[in-house]
Structures are given as C-alpha cells and as structure tokens.
Design goal:
Length: 867
C-alpha cells in the first residue's frame, strides 16, 4: 500500500537509525529491520570499532533494553531510545507512531498496554487512563485488535461480551489491578484480577500463594561473590571467548581483597577478550571497587567512569553482555558505614524465598542494619512480601514496623532511609507475593552523587558537542500518587521537624537568651542577582547548565496539568475501592456496578455511538452502544485546603472518607501537600513540614474548628472568622502568627532568596525535610558530607565592600558531624564568607517568623550545650 501511494521512500526519510544488539534484539533481526527502514528512506549508522554508538549522527536509537553504556549520554542529548516494535508499528500504520509507548525504560511499566475501559464510572475512568498514559500506556475508546486490557467491573458490558465472542486475546481485568500497580509503582501479575472469576474476590486473602522466583536477581544477589559463575552459554565446561572487554581498560581497586590467583584468572579473561588491566584510574574505562569511598573512587566518579563492584564484573564475564552497574543495587560499590539511620536496626524477612531472601539479607547488611533469621521482640522491622504469616502476626503483636521490600530497596537506592508513611511501602495486594517484582529498583544517580561525590559532573563519559538536556524522570511520575515527606518520626525534648500527620505539638521550645540580633540581610533587603550567583556553585565552575527543550517541557507540562486536574477524582477513586460490604467481600464485581448505576440515576442518556477510527482494526464498529448517563456536576471548588495535625480522623479511615466527600460537596477540596492551597488548617501552631511549607507560600492559616463546623453543620461559614489563634505557642516561639502570615504574603517565597544553606548528610530527621522548607523560601540548599569538595567560589575581600555574607551549615553535635565543622569553616572563609554552623532550629524559627535574623544562641556550640 505504501508503494502505491508514493510514501514508501518518505516514511523514515529524516531518520538516522543505530541499533543496539542484545539478547532481546538479535543480529538477524537488526539486519532485517535495517533493510526495512532503508527501503523507506532512512539511514543506518553502524557502531564504531570500539562498539560505541555514533550519537552525533543518530536521530533514533533502536534498543529493546536500556542496558547499554551510552544510554545516559543518549537521553541527555535527547536522542529517543525506542524498542524495535516502534519500527514495526510505524510500518503497519504507514506513519511514525508515538514513541512513548515503545520505550524500553522499565519504569514505564505500562509501555505495552493498550487500555479500553468498559463500565467504569467516568471520573474513575479518567483517573485510570491518565495514570496509565503517564506510565507509558495508551488508551483506546473503541475495542480494536490492538487492545491488550479491558478495565471492567463485570462481564455484563457489551465491550466485554464482544471480546469473548470474537475470541480477542485482550485481558479483562478489575480496576483493582491498575490501582495496585499505581500504588506500588511496579507492574504485578494481572492473573488474580481477571474476570469473569477474579481470584481476589473469591479466594481467602490469607491463603497460600506460590513464592515466585527472583527473575531480576540473576547474578546480583551479593556485592561480594565467592566465585566466578559458569557462563550461561558455555558448552562442556568450555568458557566462550569474551567480547565485552574489547578495547576496554579495567582497574581493580585494592579494597576488593581478592587473592592473587583469582586476580590472575580475571586478568587472563579480560586480556583474552581484547581488554587489559591498568593500575591508573585516569587510564581506565571501568573502575571496580568494593566501597564507594577513597581517592580513586571519587576521581573515577568525577571523570564519568563506569564504576561497579566484583559482582558486576562477574556478571559481565558470565553473560558476556553489558549491564549498567547502577541498574542493580548490589552491582554498585557498597557504603562503608551503611545508610544513615540503619545502624541500630534489626530486620527480619518473611514470605521471600530462594535468591530473593539471599538478596534481601545482603542488602540489609549493606545498608548497615542487622539481619536476623528469627523474629524476636527486639526486632525493629519486618520486611515481608505479604501481610500474612506467623512473623507478620508477631510483628503486629509486638508493634514492630512492617514493610515490603520496596522500602529497603529505595532507601538503599536513594542513600537515605525512606519514611514508612509512604503508602507503597506498606501496601500488600491480596493475592500477590511481591517477590515477583523484587530487584527492579535502580539507583537514584543524583542522590548517589550528592552523598558520595557532591559537585561532581553529571555528564556522560565520552565528549559530545551537543548541548546536554535533562531527560524525563518516569519514576517521579510513578511516585506522584504516593508523595509523602521522606522523613522518619523522631522525637526530642525541643521542637523538631515533625511528620505531616503528627497531631501533637512538641513539648518544649528553645529558651530565649536575649532578643534576636538583626543580620545584615533583612527580609526586605535582598542580595542582588550578581551576588547570589557568586556564592555557590553546584558543580564545576565552567559547566554549562542543563536545559530542557521547549517541546519536552510542553509535553511534560501538559501531562502534569492533566493529572493535577484529576487529583480530586483520583483521591475519591482510591477511597471508594477500599470500601467493604457488610458480608466482608471487597468492593467490585456486579454488585459494585449495580450500586454505581443506582447512585447515578439522574445522568442524562447519550445514545449515539462513537464512529470507528480504523476499519482494518475495528471489531465492533456497527454495534450501538447502550445509553449513558452523565454524572451530576459537583459544586465548583471554592476553597482548597491542606490539613496538618488534624485529629478528627485519627484511626478512623471510614470517617475520613465520608468527611472528605462531604467537604467536596460543599466546595471544599482537601489537597495533598505540594499543591496550591488557599487555607492551611491546623489545631494550633505546629512545626510540621506541611505547616512551614504552606505558611511560606502565603496560605491563610485557620483553625481546624472551621472544618469541624463545616462537617457538623453542613454549612460553610467564612473562614476568616476562624483565623488560628494560639497565644501560648506564640509566646513560646516569640512570634505573632498573623504577622508571620502577612510577612509570608509579602515575601512570596523569597525570604531566603539566594542564601546558601548547607546541611550535614546524617542530620537527625534526614535532609529532605529541611531541603523542601529551605527551597520553598528561595534558599540554595546543598548536602555537605565528608567527601564534599569546595562548592563556594573563592573571592577576595575587595569584591565584597560590605563585608562577607553569611553561609549556614545545619548540624547536630554528634562526633561524626563535628569533624565537618572546621572543613566547612575553612571553605567559607576562602570564599570570603562568614561561616555559621547552626542547629536546624535556626531555619525552622526563621521560616516560622518569616523574618531573616540570626542569634548566637543557634550556633551549635551554644545551642546543644544549653539544651
């Protein structure tokens, strides 16, 4: 057909393809695809002699995996990396189809899903479709041969019946499957959710489930393996010739502690494959070490070398195929002292078996915690693949924290303990063993850099003349529905940064030791842009900042705008699906459909069917659709509120669900933190992250009694009649709340504009809570650790006629952090700045008062001595 209409030579006429050979994309298939695209006007670039891709010439990279050395470089250059199925789909449609559904990125968990919704309520339908598309899927209004999943509540819908009659290979699933996948950020098996007889509706939640094999853990269960595994394609014990080391130089670090004999074997394998060992980090292409510290490690990281451990090297030898060391957690060097916060934890494991259990044991140990084979009362955490087992029962009895493996994986990947208040860490689908998705978590390279080689260049190892651009972050989109502050719940006798859902006020404030001494920079007098830019640099001094193309930014903004408009509906859907009927059965199936139909009797009928979009693919073009009824419109939102410290719903989820719906019907939308809000609702002055962030944004602070009155009376009195008044805590904190609110409105989030604020990596409560508070007020926030280089540009005193500006380091008085003080002070003075090492309470008090001031009582040497 393409030849007949003259488009055969035009389909790929502007494309230059290069292919990445792998197990998923064989050499034979590459040759076949190359002939096809060349026929349709494309050019094909062959890899260079050293195996690297010609990125300067290519417009498209065809790869069925992201495991190739230049993936990060390609994404930074905005070269699309797409699966071979994109070529086939484009040829079938005689046009270049969308790239996103054909991404090999494993974080796009629905990349091969074509969804069509049946009898799903309109608001829920929009939520499911929006989230599915954000994670790589596509939507089809009509039932075509391309549809892979029909989302339905029962088999009664004509779309489901037609799929059965025509014998289509699409799966009919309950919306619960999408919901569980969204919550976890992982794609789980859809078998328990398949209609007409879904297992989650008929089987007992606590029934036995086979323990799956850890398919993503092959060769990655230990950071220090005892031997080199047998190659996967060896015959009769003969090891095939390696090609992975061709023209590569490898450096083995001294901290690997391998025997001379084993080192000789590795050297022989590398040299036999066309590579060589080197003793100089500047000469190597790949650096192999056990710990992520030391001069050679930092030097290699700054130079953009590929860094892995012995397990990663053995994996390359065994499979003779490239894998990026940061794609598997135990292929990258481990932290010598573990992850901050894990040292005193005792963690047990339940419902995982085989390689998954070995992997978790080694990951727990690498994190710095103690792995225990048995469950005792002195355990602090239980990691389990399901919520049913004897250990789970014991954990509930002993009040031991229980989480799935995503908690330990993401804590390790982000180099910081994650809060168990994030719902995906405590979510356990009824008939799923989460061992089926273990090992899929990748490192957060930005967090890795910030912790272990801050200020280092995040650029590809090989030079490129193209401008670097920022790639899309699909993991952030996957986590959007699970947003929460990543801080643990800690207590101390003075005010701490409390978790968002804390309902109590801290016991005691800091004793005042005289009035605050105004600093040179006051709230109404900001530094000029030139002075702000002079102070701090996040990376190399001459490094070009990353930019984002207008088309990429536009696409991301559109997707973000669409999802943000569905926030209320997504929240309502998540609440509705948790409802339980009187007989104990989950919400769903035909009864759910019947009740939904009764609930919306007043919808208008719409009987005209949608016209078919493609006659070749359409299965049911001529079928008349049943009458549809429109949903009664909700009242327009008149007030968006954020709640913190709200006590009414504590331990009563059903009451919370009902109250949220009631508020929404009155025009009040309860939004999550991070969204724009009109009113911040709190019972009293509290120093939670929510309170401080939204106060900084100028939200009107009202008492929680306003919400109580709305719910009790069904009417909405003026919120200005319920402005928060808390004389006791105002006196304790030395402020007037309404003055702070007025200042915040005037500051417009610029209270700390351009002010450099550093924070020790191991500070109590974690760095993330302080980071969001500081950045919401315009500060430049950086994490400072033992291996942090100088990030303040040195200047002479002549450049600052008004004297040095202050630079702050938030710290506690523990011995590890004390070691950083002198190094920080020396760095500040070399940059002609005044160093101030202060307790974190300085930042909290400044933000609460919305006035930039400083008192020597906040210096760590004074603060902790007087505490």
């Amino acid at each position: 057909m393409a030849d007949q209409d003259g488009t055969a030579g035009k389909l790929f006429s502007l494309c230059v393809f290069t292919f990445v050979q792998s197990k998923e994309l064989s050499e034979t298939l590459i040759q076949e695809l190359s002939q096809n695209v060349t026929k349709y006007g494309a050019e094909v670039c062959q890899p260079k002699r050293d195996g690297s891709l010609p990125l300067n010439a290519a417009t498209h990279i065809i790869s069925n995996t992201i495991d190739f050395p230049q993936y990060m470089e390609a994404t930074s250059m905005m070269i699309p990396v797409i699966k071979s199925s994109w070529i086939q789909a484009s040829l079938a449609k005689n046009r270049q189809v969308q790239i996103r559904p054909h991404s090999p990125d494993p974080r796009m968990i629905f990349s091969d899903v074509v969804l069509s919704c049946a009898d799903i309520p309109e608001s829920d339908k929009e939520s499911i479709i929006g989230a599915t598309m954000a994670l790589g899927g596509t939507d089809s209004n009509n039932l075509t041969k391309l549809v892979t999943h029909i989302c339905a509540l029962s088999m009664d819908h004509p779309k489901c019946q037609m799929a059965q009659e025509k014998g289509l290979r699409c799966k009919i699933v309950l919306p619960h499957w999408f919901d569980d996948c969204f919550k976890l950020g992982k794609r789980i098996d859809d078998a328990p959710y398949l209609l007409p007889d879904p297992e989650i509706l008929r089987a007992h939640p606590g029934g036995n489930i086979p323990i799956p094999s850890g398919q993503h853990l092959q060769g990655a269960t230990s950071a220090r393996p005892d031997f080199i595994p047998t190659p996967v394609d060896s015959e009769a014990g003969a090891r095939p010739k390696l090609t992975i080391f061709h023209e590569k130089k490898v450096m083995l670090s001294s901290d690997l502690s391998i025997s001379t004999r084993l080192k000789d074997i590795v050297k022989e394998l590398i040299s036999g494959g066309g590579g060589e060992l080197t003793d100089y980090v500047d000469d190597c292409d790949w650096f192999v070490c056990h710990y992520r510290d030391g001069d050679n490690y930092i030097r290699a990281a700054y130079a953009g070398k590929h860094i892995g451990n012995l397990s990663w090297l053995y994996h390359l030898i065994t499979h003779n195929a490239w894998t990026t060391p940061t794609h598997r957690l135990l292929h990258y060097p481990i932290p010598r002292n573990g992850i901050p916060g894990f040292k005193d934890l005792r963690i047990a494991v339940s419902n995982y078996g085989g390689e998954a259990r070995i992997y978790l044991e080694n990951l727990i140990t690498a994190s710095g915690a103690t792995y225990t084979k048995t469950m005792k009362a002195d355990n602090t955490h239980l990691i389990t693949a399901r919520s049913n087992s004897e250990k789970c029962d014991a954990a509930r009895d002993w009040n031991i924290s229980m989480a799935n493996h995503l908690w330990i994986e993401e804590s390790y990947a982000k180099c910081q303990m994650q809060s168990l208040t994030v719902s995906k860490y405590t979510h356990f689908p009824q008939r799923t063993n989460l061992g089926e998705v273990i090992g899929q978590t990748m490192f957060d390279v930005d967090k890795l850099q910030a912790m272990y080689y801050p200020g280092g260049p995040r650029k590809p190892s090989s030079a490129s003349k193209r401008k670097r651009k920022t790639s899309d972050r699909a993991e952030e989109e996957a986590d959007a529905d699970n947003s929460a502050d990543a801080t643990g719940r800690h207590t101390r006798k003075d005010f701490d940064v409390m978790q968002d859902d804390d309902v109590e006020v801290a016991d005691q404030s800091i004793e005042e030791s005289g009035g605050p001494r105004p600093a040179k920079r006051r709230v109404t007098s900001f530094a000029t842009p030139a002075r702000e830019q002079r102070h701090v640099r996040a990376g190399k001094e001459n490094e070009t900042p990353s930019t984002v193309s207008s088309s990429s930014r536009s696409a991301k903004e559109k997707a973000r705008s669409r999802l943000s408009g569905l926030v209320d509906d997504i929240a309502l859907y998540e609440k509705e699906k948790k409802r339980v009927l009187k007989d104990g059965q989950p919400w769903g199936g035909k009864r759910a459909a019947d009740q939904i139909e009764k609930k919306h009797l007043n919808r208008r009928s719409v009987s005209s069917p949608a016209p078919p979009s493609d006659q070749d693919d359409e299965v049911a073009a001529a079928t008349k659709r049943p009458a549809r009824k429109t949903k009664l419109a909700l009242k327009q939102i008149e007030a968006r509120v954020i709640l913190t410290g709200f006590k009414r719903w504590v331990n009563d989820k059903h009451k919370e669900d009902a109250d949220r719906r009631k508020l929404r019907e009155m025009g009040i939308s309860v939004v999550s933190d991070g969204n724009v809000c009109d009113y911040l609702v709190a019972p009293q002055l509290v120093r939670t992250v929510k309170f401080l962030r939204n106060l900084s944004r100028g939200a009107t602070v009202v008492s929680s009694s306003w919400i109580e009155t709305c719910l009790d009376t069904g009417e909405v009195p003026p919120p200005t009649d319920y402005l928060l008044k808390d004389k006791e805590n105002e006196q304790r904190m030395g402020l007037k709340l309404q003055t702070s609110v007025a200042r915040a409105a005037a500051n417009k989030g610029r209270l700390l504009r351009g002010l450099p604020i550093y924070c020790t990596a191991s500070i109590k409560n974690g760095t993330e809570s302080y980071k969001v508070i500081a950045e919401d007020n315009g500060a430049q926030f950086l994490v400072y650790g033992p291996r942090s280089g100088s990030t303040i540009k040195p200047t002479s005193p002549d450049e600052d006629p008004d004297g040095p500006d202050p630079v702050y380091l938030l710290s506690t008085a523990n011995p590890e952090e004390k070691k950083l003080w002198k190094k920080f002070e020396d760095m500040a003075r070399q940059g002609n700045m005044e160093p101030r090492v202060v307790a974190s309470d300085w930042l909290l008090d400044v933000v609460m008062k919305q006035e930039l001031s400083f008192d020597k009582k906040y210096l760590v040497t004074n603060f902790f001595n007087n505490a």
